[in-house]
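Milestone 3.1: sequence recovery, worked example.
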């Protein structure tokens, strides 16, 4: 293996400076995406910038009508924290269903969002809840964050620092998981805010996206049957050995129906 440099910055500012100064370096959050990519020969970073020593990136707090989660907070912590379980139970259940215990105890919410894997769970929660993603430079609406396959709005040297999730009236998340990886073949997050409804889909496209037809139907009546008869175009959806684009399109309203049932208890 080629030699590389290892950095363990003590602050966000230091980490951002290191990242901006070396475009071939890789930020190390939980390492659950970077390290497998290296094993497959897809990455050969010049350096690691380990965020594990930055205390300001850790923790969960309530800020008014928002749950704010530090970027280096693990999936296991999100799943097991009472504030998340009580305020946004769908988010806690989502985190509890990510990967296996090793992944949940090492992987982080910031790392997952920055990677924007097309089948990851957190992008659906961020988009479905209308989260605000705080970075070392600015705040980005989830609606503007996910740009394409492993592509986000983050600029060079820009690091996620926190994610602020507004508290919904009701929310649910259901995924049809690939049994080996436990990634979402398709996952649907549904959230109701007063008369408005947001429906976000992961696993079906190049990145997480919203489903306007389902949102409109559920805004009229927030009930499982409102998802019946809603069709989703398959032309831009993923197709692989696990499922065709048409199959994924079929799953979206089916899983949305189940997510609404979950949200209603």
């Amino acid at each position: 293996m080629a030699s590389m440099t290892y950095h363990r910055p003590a602050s966000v500012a230091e980490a951002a400076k290191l990242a901006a100064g070396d475009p071939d370096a890789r930020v190390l959050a939980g390492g659950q995406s970077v390290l497998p990519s290296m094993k497959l020969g897809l990455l050969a970073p010049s350096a690691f910038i380990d965020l594990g020593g930055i205390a300001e990136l850790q923790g969960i707090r309530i800020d008014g009508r928002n749950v704010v989660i530090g970027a280096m907070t693990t999936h296991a912590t999100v799943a097991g924290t009472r504030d998340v379980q009580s305020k946004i139970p769908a988010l806690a259940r989502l985190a509890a269903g990510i990967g296996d215990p090793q992944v949940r105890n090492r992987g982080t919410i910031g790392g997952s969002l920055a990677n924007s894997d097309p089948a990851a769970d957190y992008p659906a929660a961020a988009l479905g809840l209308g989260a605000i993603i705080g970075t070392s430079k600015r705040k980005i609406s989830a609606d503007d964050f996910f740009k394409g396959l492993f592509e986000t709005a983050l600029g060079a040297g820009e690091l996620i620092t926190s994610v602020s999730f507004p508290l919904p009236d009701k929310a649910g998340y259901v995924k049809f998981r690939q049994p080996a990886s436990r990634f979402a073949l398709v996952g649907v997050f549904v959230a109701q805010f007063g008369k408005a409804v947001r429906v976000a889909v992961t696993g079906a496209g190049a990145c997480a996206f919203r489903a306007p037809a389902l949102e409109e139907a559920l805004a009229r009546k927030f009930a499982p049957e409102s998802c019946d008869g809603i069709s989703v175009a398959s032309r831009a959806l993923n197709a692989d050995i696990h499922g065709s684009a048409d199959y994924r399109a079929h799953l979206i309203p089916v899983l949305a129906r189940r997510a609404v049932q979950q949200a209603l208890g």
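The first helix runs from residue 12 to 21. The chain has two domains: 5-166, 170-264.
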